[in-house]
Specification:
By secondary structure, the protein is an alpha/beta fold. It has 13 helices and 13 strands.
């Protein structure tokens, strides 16, 4: 059973969808969660997947919803309960139900390091983390960050890298005469796209294409008008043709303020697009400076512009970084590599 209490589909939910699509038939999969759209979106990746939708637990006094989680685990008694955590503080009631149900091996999978909002939250997380059968993060550096945030022993969290499919659809029509700098993701404060817009005046010949949507869209468009670069910014909205957009990017940029191991970077690497990214979370484990891309300090629009400009001025170097990135992605970050590691973990826990 795989559980997610996410209210929207993000990278953590997309990643677990890739996983269940690749698991062999000997695994009977149930997707459980609190948001019907999220549960159905994940389950759609694997025909015949069982679904269970529970009431959302709003706080520790919501005993009816907590009891629903316990009853589901007692009734289903899965060999493995994989709790997909979009932050370290999510999924706690599913973990508690799994730990309290005899015969269930609970696996907590961390997708994004974030500080606790209060001490009780940190204490409860530490107690649960010590009770689960396995604790996983999607990157080495992210694993160490979560250990420090929660107060867990070093190396107590293992790493299984995210993987993405190797899709190669034909590119969409290129709408710019000059170089294109692009990114893919939710337009949120976390992703730092305002820094990309602020970098645009220092990239006078470049177009910026953002594939996605989100709460920051209006602010980004307003900032572009304020800086006099609105004619060089294009926001496409959500697209199911991400790989087709990547095919015409000259540089992929992701200046996130915080991350774990973003799928968008892996997709760019598979497309052999050179990457410039903020040095946050486990990003440097994929974007190795001068080898598979360039990293910059988080929050610096000037450093971001300088790194992008250096690649646009040296196309041969950019192509070499892109080729290196694709080789690394094929070797380490395929869906098959990710799935094989989860299968090995599941089989070991289930005996």
């Amino acid at each position: 059973m795989i559980y997610s209490d996410a209210l929207n589909v993000g990278g953590a939910e997309v990643s677990v969808g890739h996983l269940i699509a690749e698991l062999p038939e000997r695994f009977e999969v149930t997707i459980a969660g609190v948001q019907p759209d999220v549960v159905q979106s994940i389950a759609a990746r694997r025909p015949g997947t069982n679904v269970e939708v529970l009431d959302r637990v709003r706080d520790k006094l919501d005993v009816v919803a907590i009891a629903d989680h316990v009853r589901l685990l007692r009734r289903a008694r899965p060999d493995i309960l994989h709790v997909n955590l979009f932050t370290p503080w999510s999924g706690q009631y599913a973990q508690l139900a799994g730990v309290a149900t005899p015969g269930v091996r609970t696996v907590a999978v961390e997708h994004l390091p974030m500080p606790a909002t209060h001490r009780r939250q940190r204490f409860a997380k530490r107690a649960l983390s010590r009770a689960v059968s396995a604790h996983v993060a999607v990157g080495e550096r992210s694993a160490r960050e979560i250990e420090q945030l929660v107060g867990l022993p070093t190396e107590s969290i293992m790493t299984i890298y995210n993987g993405v499919p190797q899709n190669a659809p034909p590119p969409l029509e290129r709408r710019a005469d000059g170089p294109v700098v692009g990114s893919v993701g939710r337009l949120s404060e976390q992703k730092g796209y305002d820094l990309l817009v602020r970098a645009l005046p220092d990239l006078p010949d470049a177009q910026l294409v953002l594939v996605g949507d989100g709460p920051e869209r209006a602010r980004l468009e307003s900032l572009a008008r304020e800086l006099g670069v609105s004619e060089r910014l294009r926001i496409t909205g959500w697209s199911d043709k991400v790989s087709s957009h990547l095919a015409y990017f000259d540089v992929f940029a992701l200046p996130s303020r915080y991350e774990a191991f973003p799928l968008a970077i892996l997709e760019a690497m598979f497309a052999a697009v050179p990457v410039v990214a903020a040095e946050v979370g486990s990003v440097p484990e994929a974007v190795q400076p001068g080898v598979t891309g360039l990293t910059v300090a988080p929050g610096s629009a000037s450093e971001l512009a300088s790194a992008i400009r250096s690649l646009l001025a040296d196309p041969e170097r950019a192509r070499e970084l892109g080729r290196n990135a694709r080789r690394m992605a094929l070797d380490r970050f395929s869906v098959r590599a990710m799935t094989d590691r989860y299968i090995a973990l599941y089989d070991r826990l289930a005996g």
